[in-house]
């Protein structure tokens, strides 16, 4: 018997369903971004070199995380579709296997990232005054990747079954704790020595670890839509193989989105510390202001997955149309506000660095009026992933980063009079083109014919046999 929540998602008003999902997600994402904003706020008090150290580290750590994230995408998509199909037993099985896979994957990637951090930073060509801080920040971040993975999968699986309030409460508590720990670790207090830039990463490590442990405990108690048991973590080779091939395009997509900013960092770093710091602050602000669209796209993903699992492709299409339209409107308004108040936004992070304020404000004003296109792209790509059409999302990412943005940034900054401004102009040009292409591809309708539903049924049979053999049912 479907719950009232499932009836709303599969049969109720689409606007109401999107709001019920999106509002807690948006609030949670606002708080989640608080980690980076808190780091930027306190690190900004150390000067431009410290800000640049954090800015150059984020794309590298994101790239490593993205390499293993495809397994999580596969798990979240399948669990949501099983929920739409009314298969709670398989929701639980997929969740346990997903948590197992991301834990192992993150441990391997974190160790590799820790060892390779020095050559990665040298490859990026960071300035000597930035290197030491970036290395400490990056290595601590790699140590904490396992906690980031585990909690990210907890959030994704919770969203997949439509439970968004519990992650919100956890994030609220850990962000408050992070804000308190950041100045303590960065500047020191009493017997605790100052750690500088690395202190920001240590604070995040502590709070993310706490969040991950809480997530596992909630799954094991089984009160919020997913019930895990220790027996469920026994490796299921058939499911792992299925998740690998389903999630591989997702890993390539997210790795592309991580590699793109890292490649841009090569270009940005070549223009000096001031440009790198302005770019880093502008990127942080971009992440913050796109949160409403991110929340809507994640709500779209849940509803599309569940409705595809229930065999209702037309409703999934209507969900995407409404989400993309709302995202376009919201981010267009936010972009206009950012244009008007760009210098004030940047000075919040570096109040005593007028050159960085000028550079960051220029970056924001060049890209912000095209932000509506980001909202459209996010929702359409989320629908592609949620329907199981991971290849479409992967192709859009590859074209966006390697065919459009990076070549544009290189040509405009190195071969025109725009110089550093050319880097910034690559953002709105790419955003507009990719949004148009995404909408056209979605309108063509081929995503509705994705065979994931049938493949999921085959996977369900395999998983059900495993469950029966283990005596879980």
TrEMBL record:
It comes from the Bacteria. Pfam families: MatE (PF01554). Keywords: Cell membrane, Membrane, Transmembrane, Transmembrane helix, Transport. The keyword Transmembrane helix applies. InterPro entries: MATE_fam, MdtK-like, Membrane_Transporter-Flippase. GO terms for cellular component: plasma membrane. The chain crosses the membrane at residues 12-31, 51-78, 90-116, 136-154, 166-190, 196-220, 259-279, 325-350, 362-384, 391-412, 424-443. PANTHER family: MULTIDRUG RESISTANCE PROTEIN NORM-RELATED, MULTIDRUG RESISTANCE PROTEIN YPNP-RELATED. This is Putative efflux protein, MATE family.
